[in-house]
Amino acid sequence: MGKVQGKYHLRVFQHAQDMPPRSFPAPNNFVLQGSLKSAPQGFANLGPAGESSLLNLRIALPSSNIAGLEKALLDVSNPSSSNHGNHLSRAQVKAFVAPTDEAAAAVNTWLASHGLGAKTVSHAGDWLSVSLNVSQANDMMAAKYENFQHIASGKIYARTLSFSLPAKVANFVAHVHPTISFNNPVGPVLSTPKPVSADDLPTPCSPACLQSLYEIPIIPATEKTNSIAVPGFLGEFANAADLTTFLKMYRPDMPSNATFTTQLLDGGSNPQNGTEAGREANLDIQYTVGLATGVPVSFVSIGADQPDGLHGFLDVINILSGEDDVPQVMTTSYLEDEEGMIAADLAFKLCEAYMAFGARGTSMLFGSGDAGVAGNGAFTCTTFLTTVPSGCPYVTSVSSTGGISPETASSFSGGGFSTLWGTPDYQADAVAAYLTLQGSANAGLFNTTGRGYPDVSAQGNDVPIIVDGQLGFIGGTSASTPTFASVIALLNDQLIAAGKPPLGFLNPWLYANPGMLNDVTSGSNPGCNTDGFAASTGWDPVTGLGTPNFPRMKAAAGL
């Protein structure tokens, strides 16, 4: 059996003796770390990569005490714990996440033996970066780097279908990237906002609609230590002029100068030319600034060429984790397919980074996906597909609803059961109840012992946004996530004003208080030539526990 790293992980293969048989034998004195039979769907093999081509490797070292960090996170996040809300400091988290001196020394000695030196690229020291050519990488890792073209975008990446490490260092490396991970460079698929006339307006749920439906307060927040971080990826830029237009149209009660700040990572930028305004970035900014009245919002723009292999997901979390003051809420509307694209070890390191960030007191919310049970919709599927980061048990996954009275599940809402992480204790009863109700439906198409997602939901159909000065409408869990995040930010404002800590990692609190949410019991999320899952009473893998009810959530938070 594979080693279990933390009680929520299913099969985390840390060393070769834990791994199932592979089709790529490792050479003598090398330990196989991972392999694929072929590249994922959508990629074409162009042949060997040029030996002199430059690779920028990221090397992950195992953290010294992830089990201890998980225990600490759950302790401060469990509403019945006497330690609830006592979030950890940067130094406390670093002590859990940092690698052992033995691991760091072994890896650096190995690199030095090849004339290479690494630099540390995470505040805890568990990630190293080193530049080398393809020939060196092939030699050091018994690899065979080839060029693979992503057919839809035309982008070309150097990857290997297997890699191994010398036995003397293998136990001290959690993962190396780029090796066997194939990330989708196209990113999330969003509908295109189009100008509409007054005669053609759909029936959208604008900020006023959301405030009424979920009883979200419009009184401005007062606590400036409370904030929301909105990461932007894949060349998506947030436009301040579009935000002003949006607020004049939908929040005329707010100050005319209400805006956001910008933080740049990995060579990111945020140009303000209207033609470069991003649908995703504008959506996230307009529905945080426009709903979390008065809460400071920061747009964190990540450059287009991130070396972390996860669109910048790892970089943004590692950099923000290294700061003394962290945002109380982070909302992200981007995702990746769990199966076939991201190596399991890379996904685990990402999830551990979220664990660490949650322990600092940040609530992390991610869209669950817009292709039903087909994950990100990038693959042809015969079994249900799932998404990262939603499958990580240390984040809160948000799906979409439509309709007002009553709300119903949006058919595109991503949801299901992770193939990488097991069912966490905080949702075990809720998942078991749903599976009993599910019976034999969809048998064999999903992992019955996996972490179930989404956790919650919010409106996400025909949401109005402004892009390059024009009104358009957009749908997706990308719209639902900033809405739920804004609710949490406003609750945090009131908690901080009352001298209490922010909510932090939400899931234990959410599952302990399901009655504070509006249960959504109709709709489904079809995909993979099936009807998918059906919404039901209680938690379900379509709408989670339900949509926000601010007064009931406020009471559950002890306000």
Question: What would you say this structure looks like, in words?
Answer:
26% of the residues lie in helices and 20% in strands. It has 559 residues and is of the alpha/beta class. It is globular, with a radius of gyration of 23 Å. The protein folds into two domains: 16-63 and 98-177, no CATH class; 198-556, Peptidase S8/S53 domain (Rossmann fold, 3-Layer(aba) Sandwich). The relative contact order is 0.14. It is built from 14 helices and 23 strands. Strand 4 and strand 5 (127-133) form a beta hairpin. It has helices at 66-77, 90-97, 101-112, 134-140, 167-170, 207-214, 240-250, 279-289, 313-321, 344-359, 428-438, 477-497, 507-512, 550-556, and strands spanning 30-35, 43-48, 54-60, 119-120, 127-133, 145-150, 156-160, 162-166, 175-177, 228-232, 261-265, 297-302, 329-332, 336-337, 363-367, 387-388, 396-402, 408-409, 416-422, 450-453, 456-459, 463-467, 470-474. The strands form seven sheets. Strands 10, 11, 12, 13, 15, 17, 18 and 21 form an eight-stranded mixed sheet that branches. Strands 4-5-3-9 form a four-stranded antiparallel sheet.
